Amino acid sequence: VIGLRNRVVMMMVVVVVVMVVTVAVEVVVVMVVTVAVVVVMLVTVAVVVTVAVVVVVMVVTVAVVVTVAVVVVVMVVTVAVVVMVVIRDSNMIFINVHTYLNT
Question: What is the pTM of this model?
């Protein structure tokens, strides 16, 4: 009877130890998986933020280039108009002087 009782107690102890080890392993696995998921989410967020920053920088660069191009075009047109007006006025003066001298 004593031997049977010892076997039952040993079996119960083994069952309890196996259950505790199983629960501990499950908890560790769940924690590792949770940490892995959080890390993946953080990396995904970092990648998305990086892509967004790159896109914003590209848009700002394009806007600056377009603005500079518009300013250059406006300056070229302004210089061309001024040169045309000066040439026309100088031709008119030249023509007027010649007309005056020839008379």
Answer: 0.48
